[in-house]
Design a protein that fits this description.
It is a single chain. By secondary structure, the protein is of the alpha+beta class. It folds into 3 domains: 156 residues, Major capsid protein gp5 fold; 85 residues, 2-Layer Sandwich (hypothetical protein PF0899 fold), CATH 3.30.2320; 113 residues, Elongation Factor Tu (Ef-tu), domain 3, CATH 2.40.30.240. Helices cover 20% and strands 34% of the residues. The strands form 7 sheets. Strands 6-25-20-7-9-8 form a 6-stranded mixed β-sheet. A hairpin with a 2-residue loop joins strand 1 and strand 2. Helix 1 crosses helix 3. The protein is elongated and about 75 Å long. The relative contact order is 0.22. InterPro entries: Phage_coat_Gp5.
């Protein structure tokens, strides 16, 4: 096959296809918001942020008497604020290589790094997920371990379609090994010979070395809810999805006593089914949204999610916490735990938008493949006869509905 002088369009087209193929979790989340950035109002683009309506909810009337309900819609935003790229240089001689050879030697390794970065940013959204099942520090090595995630999702009325799971290498291979003992020839053979475990309990399961580790805050003391009546209304928090919780009983005067992403329960506060509002058998889990420190008296005000709502269409808990109710945190202080995630597609969103063709730049190419857009710009150095190529992508990630995801540890 004759060599062809490579152009920015050829490089961009090859790069974006390799990039899309290397994505793991980023390929399983919602992508529909990208269309919003293409829309124009009175000739102007949407900018770098769009507003999304949160789903509304209702209660069921009992009896024949009409009881009209207000339609209350919360809002959230997605900001496209992550510009990432990989830069490389080719000599004029190398630019006459066959594209397949160049893709294998140069472009694929670069795109693997870029795909890993996108996956890392998407998986970092675990910090917004309050539900965490299993025992932190234990490996997922049995179906009973794995099943805790879809069980929690079913109890929380999460739709049963479009569910995916991403496990750390340790948990994935332990789970694959557990499948070899099953009396199902094709499943056991695939797990044993190729490490392929596929769909488990309706969850399309993948492995990623990008599964993050969450390090629990220093904690300390015996934290308690400080004061009753700390519930809120949905109308007051519908756009932020969080609230403040006043606590005490901490070890005094310590910075970052709790860390964003820490998970805890409160004694006597149970979860509820979001559809039926029936009280569930497990305590409600809350996630800390921002680092918080204790003062000289051992007090700390935490920003938590979900908000504590005890009635109405958006009820989240069985009861408001009592004064001095004990708080129990998941995991040991200062210890790191792999954040395996099982989630519905609509829990998280990824938005990738085309970067502008900058004025003055020559031979700019933008290519899109399966909603992944890459921009390639060559910059020639006549002294060394080298072309430096910059490849950029622009994207944003968002936790749209944390109720649709669960963190998973073994038992």
């Amino acid at each position: 096959m004759a060599n062809t002088t490579l152009t920015p369009a050829i490089v961009a087209k090859t790069a974006v296809r390799i990039l899309e193929n290397e994505l793991v979790m980023a390929g399983m989340v919602y992508r529909g918001y990208e269309d919003e950035f293409d829309k124009k109002l009175n000739g102007y683009s949407a900018g770098d942020t769009i507003t999304i309506r949160k789903p509304t909810d209702f209660t069921v009337r009992d009896g024949a008497v009409m009881a009209s309900q207000d339609v209350t819609e919360g809002r959230t935003t997605i900001t496209v604020d992550k510009q990432k790229g990989v830069d490389f240089a080719f000599t004029s001689k190398e630019l006459t290589l066959n594209i397949d050879e160049l893709a294998e030697r140069v472009i694929k390794p670069a795109m693997v790094q870029l795909a890993n970065q996108i996956d890392l940013d998407v998986m970092a959204e675990y910090r917004n997920v309050p539900n965490w099942v299993g025992t932190p520090g234990q490996t997922v090595d049995a179906f009973a371990d794995f099943a805790k995630a879809p069980t929690r999702m079913d109890l929380g009325a999460v739709p049963q379609d479009m569910r995916s799971g991403v496990l750390s290498p340790t948990d994935y291979w332990a789970m694959a090994g557990s499948q070899t003992a099953l009396y199902m020839q094709n499943v056991a053979q695939g797990a044993y010979r190729k490490g392929r475990i596929g769909e488990i309990g309706g969850i399309d399961t993948y492995m990623s070395q990008n599964v993050p580790t969450h390090i629990v805050g220093p904690l300390g003391g015996a934290p308690l809810v400080n004061g009753g009546a700390q519930g809120v209304t949905y109308a007051a928090v519908k756009d932020i999805g969080s609230q403040s919780l006043v606590t005490d009983g901490w070890t005094a005067a310590a910075a970052a006593r709790v860390k964003a992403g820490d998970v805890f329960t409160i004694a006597g506060v149970f979860d509820v089914n979001p559809v039926t509002k029936a009280t569930l058998p497990h305590l409600k889990m809350f996630v800390v949204k921002a680092d918080a420190s204790s003062d000289a008296s051992g007090n700390a005000t935490l920003t938590i999610s979900p908000p504590i709502i005890t009635s109405g269409a958006f009820q989240t808990v069985s009861a408001v916490p009592a004064d001095n109710a004990a708080m129990a945190f998941f995991g040991a202080a200062g210890t790191g735990y792999a954040q395996n995630l099982v989630f519905h597609k609509n829990a998280f969103a990824l938005v990738v938008v085309p970067l502008v063709k900058p004025p003055g730049a020559v031979d700019v190419s933008r290519e899109t493949y399966k909603n992944i857009n890459a921009r390639v710009i060559p910059v020639y150095d006549g002294t060394t006869d080298k072309s430096a190529w910059r490849l950029d992508i622009l994207y944003g990630v968002k936790t749209v509905d944390p109720r649709l995801a669960v963190r998973l540890s073994g038992s």
